Amino acid sequence: MFSVQMIARVRIPVFILLAAAWMMAMACQKVPLLAPSGSTITITSAATALPLNGTADIVAQVLEPAGTPPHNGTLVTFTTTLGSIQPSDAETDINGRVTAKFIAGSASGTAVITASSGGANVGSAGAVKIAVGTAAVGRVTVNASPASVPAIGGTSTITTTVFDLNGNMLSAAPVSYSTTAGTLSAATVTTDANGVAKTTLTTNQQATVTASVGAQAPATGGGGTGSTTPSASGQASATVVVTVSAAPTLTITPPTTAPSAGLPASFTFAVAAAASNGSPVRDLTVNWGDGQTQSLGAVTGSAIVVHVFRSPDTYVVSGTVTDSFGNVVTVSISVTVNPKPLPVVTVVVGGSATPTAGTDITFTATVAAATGTGTVIQDVVIDYGDTGGRLDLGAVTGTITLHHVYQNAGTYTVTLTAQDSNGGVGTAITTVFVQAQVPLGVTLNASASIGTVTTVETFTATVTGLGNAVVNSYLWEFGNGDPPQTTTTNQVTHQYAHGTNTWTARVTVTTSTGGTATNTTVITP
Length: 525
Fold this sequence. Notes:
Helix content is 5%, strand content 52%. It is mostly beta strands and 525 residues long. It has five domains: 40-126, Immunoglobulin-like; 135-245, Sandwich (Immunoglobulin-like), CATH 2.60.40; 249-335, Sandwich (Immunoglobulin-like); 344-434, Immunoglobulin-like (Sandwich); 441-523, Immunoglobulins (Immunoglobulin-like).
């Protein structure tokens, strides 16, 4: 920087100073960073096809000739032939990546998206192409299930699949339906993620249903499925013929209560021959949807069939009726099978929440079969969570009182398990926090009753750490030469002469488990 003194000394012309100041100001302005020559840009899209007004992330990766990312903040410019890019100009991150969002807009077509920065651009070969709306439609197939309906009228599901020019299923494409007879549940349906659109035809006459994508005229032809080659604007249609047949009817009535796995469930199958142009029923076959099928023969009227589903799930139960003319009617229902009803079990710890090791702990358990299932308890097992702490209780029910002794301190998980005749297993869990066992010990205290000549000392022994044991005996030694005394109580008295000496009395306890503890106290009569 030039100071006033420096300017005065060197006498720089004013116009030179002004030019220098202008150049310094221009240098301070921010110049966009651009990729150097030889750099490459690779762009990718999260989608190759979008519905109208759909969006997709566009990612551009910039690499310099050496294969390294350019400076953070390098400007990349996006262009598209359809829709818009937001933002159209964006700066790279530290990894040379930049993300923008493509917005399809309301027009169908193919968007060609490119990117450039300085000496790098994507080029036509690396451009991302996204088909929008119906632009990519290649062909349409349509089928009806069932292909024939009874003469008294019935329904058929019309399923249309739309494919793009590459043979891939095209989603989010509006399909328009028309029919020569009957009614359609929906005249326009948009394809789902699998390129499928469905509508329902209700008719008692033969009907030709046309499914069209775009504005192309309907295809012509016979029954079954059909397809066309689209025009350049992306249009296609197909037709299917639904015929009328004098076929028998079938109604499947599931249980009024949802069945449970492992338990019998009753289904009613009602079969009726066609009122006109019909023929006798030859066979009713049931597909239970769980891998099992069952032929019921020439059923006329209603048949009640019992079936057992082994696993919980949603099953499609189908009945197929065939008459002597070969007419086939299939009716399906969806049945949700609940999990096996489980035995109801509980287990709780009685007494202290933190028992001591070596003490007897009481547990209260309850076991009952699930109500309304007809099952019975077959086996009950309790696992106390320690070594060797598993006990099989057999087929017990109701309230059960259990006892267990933990030999060591710790946290134990107690698990009660009950299994019923249906294989259902009920489990209850509780946790026991077992404290360390207090060592066996005894304290000895004395209280004096002073007479004129003697003092009567009352000795009291207090025992700790017994656990489940009890004291069998107390051995008292008075220290003054008198013979020892054994009692089963924790208190004894003894007489001492005044001023004879200072004596040390001793007590020794023996427990029911063979443990012993000793302590003393000093007295001065």
